Amino acid sequence: MVITMLSRDNLLDLVHQCRNEQSLDLQINLLFRINESLPDSLGIKIPSLITNDYVSRALDIIEDKLDQFEPKKQKNVISL
Hints:
Structural class: mainly alpha
């Protein structure tokens, strides 16, 4: 399995997509994908028994952690 690091905005988009998904199975798959894409310091421990309420709470936690980090601003480069 290849795990890729996604940008903060992409991760927030996945969180939004997961919240709007009706199927619990698809929500769980998205939650695992989101969690695997996070740096180790931001990841959460996911229990073996996952309920709809847990998915909502886990997404809240992940979103709060992501909100603590501002996207990196590009340096202004001036060509002469």
